[in-house]
C-alpha cells in the first residue's frame, strides 16, 4: 500500500508510478541506452580483434620470430613478436602473406580440422588444440629429428603431408593427402595464429613438459 509520504513525493516529482506510460517510457529509455553501450562495445571489440588490431597482428607477422611468455603485469602468457625469421626462409610482402594465409585457412576448412582439433578453444577435443601449435616444443625436440628436417616449418610440412608415417601420439592423425603447397599454407596460418593475443589461452603452453 502506498504511504502518504510516498504519494506526496510522487506528486512533487510529477510522477505517477501507477501510470503504465511511465514504465513504458522507462523501458524504452533503458533499451536505447543499452543499444548505445552495445554499439560502443562492438566498435571497441572490432578495433581489438580485427587483423592489424591490438590483439591480432597483420598477416606479414609470419616474417618475424614469434615467442610466448608470461607477462607479470597482465598475469598471463602473451605472444612476443621478435626479430626477422622469415617462414621457409623467404620474406613475404603483406599481400603475399595475406594470400598464403587465406589459402591455409581454406585448407583447414576443406579438411574439417575442427572435427578433431580446436582453434581458440572451439571445435572438437579428439586432437590437441592448435591455437599455439606453431610454438609447440615437440617440433624441434621430436619431429625435426624424426622427419630429418632442419627447420620447424619443414618438419611441420613433412608431418602434415604424411602424418601416418610419424605416429607419435596415441591418436594417430589420418593422411589428409595435402599437397606440399597446401601444407606450407597451413603452416603459415598456424604461425600467424600463434601470434594472436588470446588473453593467456592456452595457459602455460609448452611449459608442462619442461618442468622437472
Could you explain the architecture of this structure?
The protein is mostly helical and 212 residues long. 43% of the residues lie in helices and 10% in strands. The chain is built from six helices and four strands, in the order ααββαββααα. The strands form two sheets. A two-stranded antiparallel ribbon has the order 1-2. Helix 3 crosses helix 6 and helix 4 packs across helix 5.
Question: Helices and strands in order, then pairings?
Answer:
Elements: H1 4-13, H2 20-49, E1 64-71, E2 76-84, H3 94-110, E3 118-119, E4 122-123, H4 138-147, H5 152-161, H6 180-194
Antiparallel strand pairs: 1-2, 3-4
Helix pairs in contact: 3-6, 4-5, 5-6
Counted by DSSP, the helix tally is 6
Low-confidence stretches: none
Mean pLDDT: 90
**Beta-sheet strand percentage?**
5-15%
Spatial extent as radius of gyration:
26 Å
Q: Tell me roughly what share of residues is in helical segments.
A: 40-55%
Q: Give the tally of β-strands.
A: 4
- Report the oligomer: single chain
Q: Which descriptor suits the 3D outline? A: elongated
Q: Topology as H/E string?
A: HHEEHEEHHH
Biggest sheet strand order reads: 1-2
Could you give the distance between the termini?
Answer: 70 Å
Strand count, sense and closure of the main sheet?
2 strands, antiparallel
Class from helix and strand fractions: mainly alpha
Features:
single chain, 212 residues, mainly alpha, two-stranded antiparallel ribbon, two-stranded antiparallel sheet, 6 helices, 4 strands
Quick structural gist:
This protein is mainly alpha-helical and 212 residues long.
Amino acid at each position: 500500500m502506498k504511504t502518504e509520504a510516498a504519494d506526496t513525493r510522487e506528486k512533487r516529482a510529477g510522477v505517477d508510478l501507477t501510470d503504465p506510460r511511465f514504465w513504458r517510457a522507462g523501458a524504452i529509455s533503458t533499451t536505447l541506452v543499452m543499444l548505445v553501450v552495445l554499439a560502443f562495445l562492438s566498435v571497441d571489440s572490432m578495433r581489438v580483434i580485427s587483423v592489424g588490431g591490438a590483439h591480432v597482428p597483420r598477416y606479414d607477422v609470419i616474417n618475424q620470430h614469434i615467442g610466448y611468455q608470461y607477462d607479470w603485469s597482465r598475469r598471463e602468457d602473451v605472444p612476443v613478436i621478435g626479430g626477422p625469421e622469415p617462414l621457409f626462409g623467404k620474406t613475404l610482402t603483406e599481400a603475399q602473406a595475406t594470400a598464403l594465409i587465406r589459402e591455409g585457412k581454406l585448407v583447414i576448412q576443406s579438411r574439417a580440422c575442427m572435427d578433431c582439433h580446436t582453434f581458440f578453444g572451439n571445435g572438437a577435443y579428439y586432437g590437441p588444440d592448435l591455437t599455439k601449435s606453431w610454438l609447440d616444443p615437440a617440433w624441434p625436440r621430436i619431429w625435426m629429428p624424426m622427419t630429418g628436417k632442419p627447420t620447424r616449418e619443414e618438419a611441420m610440412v613433412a608431418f602434415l603431408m604424411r602424418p601416418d608415417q610419424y605416429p607419435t601420439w596415441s591418436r594417430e592423425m589420418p593422411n589428409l593427402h595435402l599437397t606440399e603447397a597446401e601444407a606450407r599454407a597451413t603452416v603459415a596460418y598456424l604461425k600467424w595464429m600463434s601470434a594472436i593475443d588470446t588473453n593467456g589461452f592456452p595457459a602455460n603452453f609448452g611449459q608442462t613438459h619442461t618442468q622437472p
